[in-house]
Amino acid sequence: MTLMSFLLIVIVFLAFFVFFSGINPQEMTIFFTPEQSVTYPVTVIVLGCVIVGLFIGYGIHLYGNFSHVLRCWIRGRDEKRDKEINETYREGVGRLLSGDIKRAHSVLQKVIDKDPNKIEGYIAMASVLAQEGNNKETISMLRQAKSIDGKSLEVLFKLADTYEKLGQDDAACVEYDEILEHDRGNRKAMRKQRDLHMKHERWDNALEFQARLLKAGISSNRIQEEKQLMLSIRYEIAKQSLAAANTEQAIVALKQIIKEDGTFTAAIVTLGDAYVQNGNDVDAAKVWQDGYQKLERSVFLSRLENLYIENEDPQSLLSFYNKALTQNKSDLVLHFFYAKLCLRLEMVDEAMEQIYMVENSAPDFPQLHILLAEAHRRRDRTEEAIDEYQKALGVDIQINLGYVCDTCGHGAREWNSRCPECGTWGSFSIVFRKAVANRTVVEPAPTPRGA
Predict the structure, then answer these.
(1) What is the pLDDT, as a whole number, of residue 395?
(2) Which residues of 406-424 are buried (b: 16+ CB within 10 A; e: fewer)?
(3) Is 389 inside any structural domain?
(4) How many domains does the chain have?
(5) CA distance linking residue 76 with residue 336, whole number of Å
(6) In whole angstroms, how large is the CA radius of gyration of the chain?
(7) Given 46, 288, 324, 329, which residue has the most CB atoms within 10 angstroms?
(8) Are 194 and 213 in contact (CB under 8 A)?
(9) What residues make up the domain containing 426?
């Protein structure tokens, strides 16, 4: 504003004041207390009010400007401080990723000292401590982060993961429970809980979390896998019922599983076991016979052999083999187990015929030499028996053949319902199953009887 403009405003104001005073000659008395008062012309009072208002307005304006400047200064200071802390944090993380653990430790400690509320600093420091092997301090650092923000899923997951690595699975379960309290639909936490309960064979709890996981929604490419896992968990619950002598309950559960998945080998095997435990050998035999005819898994033949031999009824088993071989003459596994049974029954000539059929039809495998050695031994052909034993070591009185997991290749002496290595159910097969699969049967040359 120029000086002339200011003077013009003053002149106009004075002219207005003179005019206003001329038409308002009255005076006004203002009482401060009942005894104290002042009397002034109305124009003076009005002018005083205007001046006081201007001063108040100007004071408010100055206060606003000062507050704005102060806030900007505080914000700038905080931004500068945050920038320095973030740069220090990035340096610490960079050192951690590059493997400079000692330097990362000192840099990240500075971050925590400068900003005790920065959760990222505690998380990164926990990673440093974990690499240093200081497990106790790792847990302590993560707990400090949790005390700052108890709802941070990143902190809770890292804390649970650390407990798992330390073998403190129950403590890890507590952290996963907290995650699910804050995020009921967190599928990762559900899977972790399920897997931990499966690890400790708490199958009822595992089933609960698997059911919740399926309800939470799964991608279409995994839905079948998760449903199959749920069947497997139900199978383990049925096994527990059977072990607890709740035979009828186990039978009902196993039948339902087989109804939903007729290829569930472990469930079919165990259903037969349940019938045997319940004294119903006839149904057990039928289950295993049907199981082999449908799935061609050798465990059914082993179960049938043991059942009929224990019941001193080998004739029924021989009838089963004869009928099965008539229907499927190209099944070399069936021929092999028939030969094994014949050896157990001292039907050496019949066993030799079956063994040579398998030998002519399939590649060489140790278990075949076991049977050949046994056949020669029982014919008092000592040298031939020794030769075969040298080719295949480990024969015992039951002629155990060994099993292998079709999924991961893990070997086992006895058949297991679940592979201890990869966790797959019903995956164990006789070790040479793949070697004789889909082979053409070649009839051996006639062997003179008693030769």
Answers:
(1) 46
(2) beeebeeeebbbbbeeebb
(3) yes
(4) 1
(5) 85
(6) 44
(7) 288
(8) yes
(9) 350-451
